[in-house]
Amino acid sequence: MVECAGWGLRLSWEARAKAVALLRGKREAMNLRSAAVLALVMIPALLWAGDKSSGDTSALRPPAGASVAMVAFEDLQCPDCADAEALLQEASTKYGIPLVRRDFPLPMHVWSFEAHVMARYFDTQAQAQGEQFRRWVFANQSSINKDNLRGMAERFADQHNVTLPANYDPAGKLKALVLADFALGQKVGVIHTPTVFVVSASQRGAPFVETLDRASLFAMIEKMQAAEKK
User: Fold this and answer.
1) pLDDT string in tens for the chain (230-residue length)
2) CA–CA separation, 48 vs 6, rounded Å?
3) Strand partners, 196
4) How far apart are CA 97 and CA 93, in angstroms?
5) d(CA 210, CA 165)
């Protein structure tokens, strides 16, 4: 889906968000000065977008104790990511492999970035809680918007007997984790969400981008697991 495409921009999240804001014309008028800024941002980005290389995937590894894993770069506001959730959970359970989630909030999604920071906060309360929050967001995605995100997150917190502070990231450490994942996604060539890699300690499969084919995903996992047993 175009909605979940990242334009292939090799830029910081803030720069990409600025470009989106300029295109929308919501944050400042598209006068000559802003058009010039947009050109400076977009031209090198579009030149890189023509580079079809897959990026450096050497940083993608299974977590400790696992021989094979799925690494999913996701956007919590992306409908394709929500649609893929059930298949990823099925694959994780069927093959007994971990699903490693990476934050890749696309700048054109107005509440996604903050939702990812919230998910990181819930991670600090309990790893399982952060996972539950992400699944809950995907399940309730159509009911969430920029204005009610905080209230929806508070509802989740109440249901799980957790407090969501007014300032849940006072030092900006959680935001830094989200941005670090985003930078990793750029490094490995992610431009769409979801992008899912099946990885082992020695191999990285071709990424599944946006639409995950069940049979192909399962076949890739089985191939990786067989190779690791040799």
Assistant:
1) 444 765 444 455 566 666 555 555 544 444 444 444 333 333 333 333 434 445 677 789 999 999 999 999 999 999 999 999 999 999 999 999 999 999 999 999 999 999 999 999 999 998 799 999 999 999 999 999 999 999 999 999 999 999 999 999 999 999 999 999 999 999 999 999 999 999 998 887 778 876 688 999 999 999 999 998 87
2) 12
3) 72, 208
4) 7
5) 34
What are the angstrom distances between the C-alpha of 211 and each of 164, 191, 214? Answer: 34, 13, 9
What is the rounded CA–CA span in Å between residue 145 and residue 160?
21
DSSP string, 53-103: -----TT--PPTT-SEEEEEEE-TT-HHHHHHHHHHHHHHHHHT--EEEEE
Contact residues for 174 (Cβ-Cβ < 8 A; gap 6+):
117, 120, 121, 124, 168
Domain 68-229 has CATH 3.40.30.10: yes
Contact between 100 and 72 under an 8 Å Cβ cutoff? The reply is yes
- In contact, 48 and 191? CB cutoff 8 Å: no
Cα 64 to chain center, whole Å?
21
pTM of the model: 0.80
Domain residue spans of the chain: 2-49, 68-229
Sign of the C-alpha dihedral computed for residues 112, 118, 139 and 127 taken in this order? positive
Q: What's the gap between Cα 46 and its chain centre?
A: 21
208-209 and 68-74 strand pairing = unpaired
